[in-house]
Amino acid sequence: MLPISNCNRTAAPAYGTVRPGTASAGLKNNFQSQVREQAARRTDEYRPQVQQAAERRTADQADSAPARKTPSREDLAELAAKYNPRRMTQAEYDSFLEDLVDKGILSKSDLGHLGYRGMVVLGVESEGAHSWGVTSSWDASGMSLSQLRGLAGVASLADAGGDALTMAKLLSLQKPCAATSPEALAFAQESADAYRALAEALEAVQARRGG
Known about the structure:
The protein is mostly helical.
């Protein structure tokens, strides 16, 4: 079992909470509207600064991270004999990720983005607080209507019914473009990049198995 780097992420309310039974429905709806308006204003106000800071952070990390390797024929033959990208348990998926790290196809830092050991990121630390306000576009070219409908519902291997290939391909289509903090945007960009690398590896393994 490998340690997860950059995965000490949790969720916390950004503007406070309303506990059930303590306010009327009207007050709750008003509170939720205010939260959404504040988040939208904050995102628009800091969009340029956030984008620039995130780009600097991503570039710095790219310079220090080892280059990912392309799987060899031997790697693909070994992985294809052990795993079915279309049907994996969580334990098999974890083992697959560990094998990719061992072979240099993924890095240890990628694990914190890819649902290793069933973990899903709910937020990132930003200057002592927690934040997760990210806006993403999706590259949906060549996708079917059913795949488009499935985009919003897939965030983990369990959501994809054990189909790691479909999960990785869908999540790799994310193109984060704005966020409420540089940390949130950079982390979302790193996640999309990690899923693209994972999707390429899974597609290669699936092709080695005969499609």
